[in-house]
């Protein structure tokens, strides 16, 4: 019995897919997760998603589909969390390659469904920005979700769209998403998080970190990203809802526009036209800024001083928690220092670690 989950935006959606599979279907059978290799710049210094040519050691599944085993490696200077996920989790990760647009993703998904004959296919999005119309002022990363949504609605197979953690990606507030959500499918608990507990200690996803934290009972307001967006941690945080796939496509203008695209550049152009930006352009600009910065060293004394100042200001903003990605950038450190910073803080003040978040 094979289950297939499409991680709509890659990254943390792939981690959440493991938790979802265990919660809904049991942890007895492995799941196949179809996901982008599209990591934050602190993992992969190259903007945009990676394709098969950016890896060594991939294993062919069909003509257009490759799996990412634990022994695969990104070709420098590229980086990827997927080989480590494959090593630590006993599931199969399949590379979703968007470089041939939605048409290419559709072809990969069709081949994968024909090859696997899966018992079920779920399309999972953490946060709910897959339901964006395209002009929301807080929208930050619509392209990946739009491409997977466009592909899924063209595949000749029943696919269920699931939204976990409404509003936790900081892009569309939960209040706006609530009327769009269908039946409640599941509410994650602390026990559900156990299957990904170790991964959450190093994986950089903020939305899935908050999903896990709310499942463990954490409540408050979490500050995320370099922009310091406040995200409420409420009882809605650990919920999973079904959404009608056709309704989502009817709402998502970018998904409809990219449906016949045959190249990523073409899809990017639609994103600029409809949403006013492309997240890959943002990554290009940020990568250029990072490249111009001088190398930094992590000075523990300076960290504690800056942390105290940051927390004083954060409390004044009503913030109760934050992510280690946000802390790394707020303290003026580079992405490469994230793991050192986490170890320093957690080892020194373990009572402040609301795993996997930091309590202000």
Explain what this protein looks like in three dimensions.
Helices cover 40% and strands 17% of the residues. With 360 residues, the protein is α/β, with parallel strands linked by helices. Strands 7-2-1-8-9-13-10 form a 7-stranded mixed beta sheet, sandwiched between helices. A 5-stranded mixed beta sheet has the order 12-11-14-16-15. Strands 3-6 form a two-stranded antiparallel ribbon. The longest helix has 17 residues, at 300-316. The N and C termini lie far apart (44 Å). The model has no long low-confidence stretch (mean pLDDT 96).
Kindly provide the radius of gyration, computed on alpha-carbon positions and rounded to a whole number of angstroms. 19 Å
Assign the structural class, choosing from mainly alpha, mainly beta, alpha/beta, alpha+beta, or little secondary structure: alpha/beta
> Quick one: biggest sheet?
7 strands, mixed
Distance between the amino and carboxyl termini: 44 Å
Shape: globular
| Strand order across the largest sheet | 7-2-1-8-9-13-10
pLDDT < 50 stretches: none
What would the average pLDDT be, to the nearest integer? 96
Which range best describes the helical content: under 10%, 10-25%, 25-40%, 40-55%, 55-70% or over 70%?
A: 25-40%
What percent of residues are in strands? 15-25%
Total beta-strand segments: 16
The total of helices stands at: 15
């Amino acid at each position: 019995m094979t289950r297939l989950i499409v991680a709509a935006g890659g990254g943390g959606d792939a981690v959440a897919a493991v938790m979802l599979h265990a919660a809904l279907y049991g942890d007895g059978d492995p799941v196949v997760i179809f996901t982008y290799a599209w990591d934050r710049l602190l993992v992969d210094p190259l903007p945009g998603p990676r394709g098969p040519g950016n890896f060594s050691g991939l294993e062919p599944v069909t003509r257009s589909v490759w799996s990412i085993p634990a022994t695969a490696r990104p070709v420098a200077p590229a980086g990827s969390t997927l080989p480590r996920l494959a090593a630590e989790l006993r599931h199969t990760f399949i590379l979703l390659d968007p470089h041939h647009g939605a048409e290419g993703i559709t072809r990969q998904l069709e081949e994968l469904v024909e090859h696997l004959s899966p018992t079920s296919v779920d399309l999972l999005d953490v946060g709910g920005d897959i339901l964006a119309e395209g002009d929301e002022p807080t929208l930050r990363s619509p392209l990946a979700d739009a491409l997977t949504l466009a592909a899924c609605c063209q595949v000749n197979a029943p696919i269920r769209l699931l939204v976990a953690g409404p509003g936790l990606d900081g892009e569309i507030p939960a209040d706006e998403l609530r009327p769009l959500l269908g039946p409640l499918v599941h509410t994650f608990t602390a026990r559900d998080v156990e299957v990904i507990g170790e991964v959450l200690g190093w994986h950089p996803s903020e939305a899935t970190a908050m999903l896990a934290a709310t499942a463990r009972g954490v409540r408050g307001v979490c500050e995320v990203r370099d922009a310091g967006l406040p995200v409420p941690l409420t009882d809605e945080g650990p919920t999973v809802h079904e959404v009608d796939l056709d309704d989502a496509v009817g709402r998502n203008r970018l998904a409809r526009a990219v449906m016949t695209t045959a190249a990523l550049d073409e899809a990017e152009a639609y994103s600029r036209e409809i949403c006013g930006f492309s997240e890959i352009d943002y990554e290009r600009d940020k990568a250029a800024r990072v490249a111009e910065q001088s190398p930094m060293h992590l000075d523990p004394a300076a960290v504690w001083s800056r942390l105290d100042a940051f927390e004083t200001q954060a409390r004044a903003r009503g913030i109760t928690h934050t992510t280690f990605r946000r802390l790394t950038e707020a303290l003026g450190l580079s992405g490469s220092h994230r793991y050192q910073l986490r170890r320093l803080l957690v080892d020194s003040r373990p009572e402040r670690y609301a795993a996997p978040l930091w309590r202000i």
